[in-house]
Amino acid sequence: MERIYLDHAATSPMDERVLEKMKPHFFGSFGNPSSIHSFGRESRKWVDEARADIAREISAKEQEIIFTSGGTEADNLAILGTAAARKNEGKHIITTAIEHHAVLHACEKLEEDGFEVTYLIPGPSGRISANQVKEALRDDTILVTVMYGNNEVGTIQPIDEIGELLSGHQAYFHTDAVQAFGYIPIDVKKSRIDMLSVSGHKLNGPKGTGFLYVNQEVKLSPILLGGEQERKRRAGTENVPGIAGLKEAVVLSNREREEKTAMFKEFKNIIMSTLEKAGVTAEVNGDAENCLPHILNLYFPGVPVESLLVNLDMEGIAVSSGSACTAGSVLPSHVLTAMFGSESGRLTSSIRLSFGLGNTAEQIETAAEKLAAVVKRLA
């Protein structure tokens, strides 16, 4: 039985081209980039080149890229680092109720430390408006953090409008672009983004890698203490093989973005048309007009999500739900709860399919047919 992986929003397989770029740094260029001898200088050269190449991809400056261990650290550094650096300028933060937990838990920690956080609630499309941000904005607001594209339903937020709104305000604008990067062209200067988080393993790059773009005018306190790496903003010896792989993943994802977008849109059409032909009722969760191309979140009325996931796994189909299953208990998706309310049936009957490297139209057709059969059996 062929196994079909449709959970790329959770993590993606590494591109072989990325691995090839990493290999030399495990055995050849293995020096510590902070060392002044030839081994260290060679590693430093690779790190500097990666930093410059990544900066170029988002219209940033080389010195504005901080390498991190992934999206979680990047989000934490942006939020906690801003709060520590600017607590004397204000203690109000604006975010949304549908952020990744790397953002939400950081904000909750700041609430414990005396900060006030406003959580914007989206409509059923999962999209907030710039006007909501405007209404929540205060003189003491120091940070607005709104994700670029949602990891569960794929809804894209009005980033350009929010950036323009904040251009005359003291608040920094941070966006978690972990799910969106590589699928949407991003220009941090044009969009007036002050900080942007990216993770390597969502781009067919290595796990444990990522970066935070930080506008050179932003005041940011480090959250990791130790050496003076990353211009004293992020202590710790640089992961040279990981950085080399991250750079290659970033370049490849942007270079092949249009081709992937067209293919993933076709995948969505195959799934929806197959379900319709089979007489299966399925509703899309999210914003059909403003949605990431690789994410499709579907609601199957009356079909228990746990049974659906287990039966699909038995058929060799790997997808996920908006629920976190821990020790037999099911916690409803905070994203779907914010969009539809805590009593909505969508919380217990929705799954997420996400596409990526290795998927083919033939696989999608097979998966769609099996999905239709399982849903009809469980309905």
UniProtKB/TrEMBL annotation:
InterPro entries named among the record's database cross-references: Aminotrans_V_dom, Aminotrans_V_PyrdxlP_BS, Cysteine_dSase, PyrdxlP-dep_Trfase, PyrdxlP-dep_Trfase_major, PyrdxlP-dep_Trfase_small
Domain Aminotransferase class V: 4-365
EC number: 2.8.1.7
Cofactors demanded by this protein: pyridoxal 5'-phosphate
GO MF annotation: an example: cysteine desulfurase activity
Record keywords, A-Z: Iron, Iron-sulfur, Metal-binding, Pyridoxal phosphate, Transferase
Catalyzed reactions: (sulfur carrier)-H + L-cysteine = (sulfur carrier)-SH + L-alanine
Pfam family, one: Aminotran_5
Protein family (similarity comment): Belongs to the class-V pyridoxal-phosphate-dependent aminotransferase family. NifS/IscS subfamily.
PANTHER family to which the protein is assigned, alphabetical: CYSTEINE DESULFURASE, CYSTEINE DESULFURYLASE FAMILY MEMBER
Name by which UniProt lists this protein: cysteine desulfurase
Organism: Bacillus amyloliquefaciens (strain ATCC 23350 / DSM 7 / BCRC 11601 / CCUG 28519 / NBRC 15535 / NRRL B-14393 / F)
